[in-house]
Amino acid sequence: MSEEKRITFTVNGVQRTVTVAGWEKLLDVLRDRLELTGTKRGCDDATCGACTVIVDGEAKKSCALSPAKVEGKSVVTIEALAQGERLHPIQQSLIDAGAVQCGYCIPGIAMELHALYDKNLDAPSEEVVDALAKHFCRCTGYEAILAGALLAQQRLKTGG
User: Fold this and answer.
1) What pLDDT, in 10s, does the model give residues 36-73?
2) Cα–Cα distance list, 24 to 5, 21, 32, 136, 139 (Å)
3) Rounded CA gap, 31 and 33, in Å?
4) Does pTM top 0.85 for this prediction?
């Protein structure tokens, strides 16, 4: 029998308290308890990147993260990027570059890029490629994803 624990953390700007079982991962809490289903379950072993969220400014794979590790921290999910119907420049750029087909990997990629560009909007293309290398896409191909990532970087720099 696993022990349950109450944790409090901030999700997309809202403080939340949940009771979690010892076996649960942050991904389970986000999707099943908080109904934030934009964070996708892919591999369950921190390989594919579909579950990437931002924890205190760092991109983290939520399928490998114990909820206890986010106690008192701030978590940002893909649901926080768009402003109503207006997509975030990262999301729109990935669409405009043709990087979105099935869309399953895109939330994790968008969150990875968001964390990277928040830290360093002038990240060189090699750093962008390294960030994208943490993600698998079986539909689009990586050229379109890289093009979208670089377009997003350009748009963020120019405010558009």
Assistant:
1) 999 999 999 999 999 999 999 999 999 999 999 999 99
2) 11, 6, 10, 24, 30
3) 6
4) yes
